[in-house]
Design goal:
Largest sheet: 3 strands, antiparallel
Distance between the termini: 82 Å
Strand content: 15-25%
Oligomer: single chain
Number of helices: 10
Number of strands: 7
Strand order of the largest sheet: 2-4-3
């Protein structure tokens, strides 16, 4: 049996690239080349089902020969809360002070950052979250307005004195009365004030996705909208960094750069 054939058996048995390379005294790239050239595939081939059924399968996380198992577990915990200290404690069981220092240091590891990027890509596929989804959500929030939830207007009200009068046209528990306009001595005109009227719209008629809370404070409705920038930042943090094509004539960065060059050019012309 040749070295490649023995390496294939080890690979199919679950041995890692680096262990196979060490065993047969070759480079990891050589082992990967053998696998690709000879079509090594772990596991039994998929069988066609006579009655196709939709089955839920556990997510397949990207493999990595550059990290040990503990480091991979740290990455998985980190993506749950985006808290390096907590992730390090869960992985290594260390005290808080050690986890705070070591977690931050591990997060700066180039190989860990690379693995996190791969996990984020997998996560984005599983959640069907794409850059377009974020842009559409951002557009929805950016164009939302408080008037989608409530209506308000300001109405001018005239001020009157309430004068008791036995022949008055109005009556309450205190007897009959009439109203007399309150005249402002400085203007000689009837006094007035502005009343602010706020009315909540029916929940079945509005989109509540951008509303964080609604409460009544001192008889008036108070609407708190979701923090648009914070929501977008959280979503962007959970996705891989977008690839920017510097060669694209229509790229946003190039457009901004061209715009800045024009501004600087115009300023220089004005100084001459």
């Amino acid at each position: 049996m040749t070295k490649q054939e023995m390496a294939k058996q080890d690979y199919l048995a679950g041995m890692k690239y680096k262990d196979i390379a060490a065993k047969y005294e070759v480079s990891i790239n050589t082992v990967k080349s053998w696998k690709k050239r000879n079509g090594w595939v772990r596991g039994a081939p998929k069988q066609k089902s006579v009655h196709p059924k939709t089955k839920k399968v556990a997510p397949k996380f990207p493999d990595s020969d550059e990290l040990n198992d503990k480091q991979k577990v740290f990455c998985l915990y980190y993506l749950q809360r985006y808290n390096a200290t907590w992730a390090y404690q869960k992985t290594y069981g260390s005290d808080y002070e050690t986890a705070m220092a070591s977690g931050s240091r591990l997060l700066r590891n180039v190989k860990v950052k690379k693995y996190l990027t791969e996990l984020k890509k997998q996560q984005s596929q599983d959640l069907y979250a794409t850059a377009n989804d974020i842009l559409l959500r951002y557009l929805k929030q950016a164009t939302s307005d408080v008037t989608d939830v409530l209506s308000f207007k300001t109405k001018k009200r005239l001020v009157y004195y309430k004068i008791h009068d036995k022949d008055g046209p109005y009556e309450d528990a205190g007897g009959k009365f009439r109203y007399e306009p309150k005249i402002n001595p400085e203007t000689g005109e009837q006094d007035y004030y502005y009343e602010h009227l706020i009315k909540l719209k029916d929940s079945k008629d509005i989109d509540t996705s951008n509303i964080k809370s609604i409460r009544i404070d001192k008889g008036e409705p108070v609407v708190e909208m979701e923090d648009r920038q914070k929501a977008m930042q959280i979503l962007l943090d959970r996705l891989p960094e977008p690839e920017v094509n510097d060669d694209s004539e229509n790229s946003l960065l190039k457009a901004i750069g061209n715009g800045l060059k024009k501004i600087w050019s115009d300023e220089n012309e004005n100084k001459k």
